[in-house]
Amino acid sequence: MQYDWMKDAPEAAREYLDGRRLDEVECIIGDTPGNSRGKAMPARKFARRESMYMPDSIYYQTVTGSYVELEEIEHQYTEGDMVLTPDYATATAAPWTGSDVTLQVIHNVTDLDGNDVPLVPRNVLRRVLAQYADMGLKPVVAPEMEFYLVARNTDPNMPVEPPMGRTGRRAASQQAYSMTAVDEYGPVIDDIYDFAEAQGFEIDTIIQEGGAGQVEINLKHGDPVALADEVFYFKRLVKEAALRHDCYATFMAKPMADQPGSAMHIHHSILDIATGQNIFTAADESATDAFGHFIGGLQTYLPAATLFIAPYVNSYRRYVANFSAPINLEWAENNRTTGIRVPLSGPQARRVENRVAGMDCNPYIGLAASLACGLLGLREKIAPRRAVEGEAYEAERDIPRSIYQALDLLDNCPALAQVMGEDFTFVYKAAKRMEFEEFQEVISPWEREHLLMTV
């Protein structure tokens, strides 16, 4: 029997199909790096299916496509099936497909007994949110997405360059908030707006950032899973818009050595489920102890969580003092040199901004890790350090210098692993070790330039 699933789809998806015949549905899940995996099928066949299967081996892969080998996991190589069931509320257009009218639908992932598969990043975020719910709390988040538009780069041995603008000149750096700079690649921005509207996503603002061809998109605050879904979708949307105009969009943390890196700043506030009130603000509109405890949790646990929010070797190239990225976990109000910032706002909108997370992180994992650190601060009532005054770049470094150091910190933080899920953390660390070992086997241009004829 065919199910009329479109009645459960968002209004934007129904509007996109108004007067069109749906050809295809992409049944997708997010893998560990944050890319879409799944199956495409004719729309009529999708309407007749309640679920489908995919192998769990997807979550044993590294970003290079290699598979981690873990003796501790029984039957790892049997590639057992996971059950995928559609989350119809996530249905959204794939507007770049043109005349082939297509919708995307994110799927929930369980085992054969109906339990959440712990290695799935979306399930990791839900796990963290369930622990907030057990305390009577509901997080609200707002992510900021930074990325670069760059010239096509088909040879990995060649450096990445800024794109050509409409003037025929390459995009320039140090033009933050410049409308003229945004106009240089206006056609790409226009397609981003059009795609986002077709998909039902509300963009708060688009601005030129400090790097050459660097753009920031801010999203409206809301439910963490819904916002992670949006960031997941947005990454593909932006890449497709760029390809239409002979350039790439990259969410790599540091694509160009002489340009600032790209972050995914995360704004958090926490609501009391019973009252709907922001627990960071007291009745007299002053900051509460919970506000301090959340900051204290970030300061205490973010070093160990860095592997989740800075997941690749390249991620650590972004953390350079005086280069638009934090190097420590000091906090202050209205101070963008700190790793933890409290933006200007009214009392009911009091929130905490994590400025450490890189845009290369999986949005589900990044939001889960940041919220996990705050959760531990609330549970353990961790007092924050004193707010910093002046430039925080001068303070002692808190953030690991390398992925190897980040691995070591996470190895020694069982409390964070428990919140994120011990099975997930175990496999995730194994994948990161394997990626690091693969990177170590590559000889870099720096080595060839300075060592080949010198040593």
Topology:
Layout: H1 11-16, E1 24-30, E2 36-42, H2 43-47, E3 52-55, E4 81-86, E5 92-93, E6 102-110, H3 121-134, E7 137-151, H4 179-184, H5 186-199, E8 203-208, E9 214-219, H6 224-243, E10 247-250, E11 266-272, H7 289-309, E12 331-333, E13 340-342, E14 352-354, H8 363-380, H9 403-411, H10 414-420, H11 422-440, H12 445-451
Parallel strand pairs: 1-6, 12-13
Antiparallel strand pairs: 1-2, 3-4, 4-6, 5-6, 7-9, 7-10, 7-11, 8-9, 11-14, 13-14
How does this model look, in words?
- The structure is a single chain.
- This protein has helices at 11-16, 43-47, 121-134, 179-184, 186-199, 224-243, 289-309, 363-380, 403-411, 414-420, 422-440, 445-451, and strands at residues 24-30, 36-42, 52-55, 81-86, 92-93, 102-110, 137-151, 203-208, 214-219, 247-250, 266-272, 331-333, 340-342, 352-354.
- 32% of the residues lie in helices and 18% in strands.
- It contains twelve helices and 14 strands.
- The strands form two sheets. Strands 7, 8, 9, 10, 11, 12, 13 and 14 form an eight-stranded mixed beta sheet that branches. Strands 1, 2, 3, 4, 5 and 6 form a six-stranded mixed beta sheet that branches.
- Helix 7 packs antiparallel against helix 8 (363-380), helix 7 crosses helix 9 (403-411) and helix 10 (414-420) packs across helix 11.
- A hairpin with a 5-residue loop joins strand 8 (203-208) and strand 9.
- The radius of gyration is 22 Å and the shape is globular.
- The model has no long low-confidence stretch (mean pLDDT 93).
- It is α+β, with helices and mostly antiparallel strands and 455 residues long.
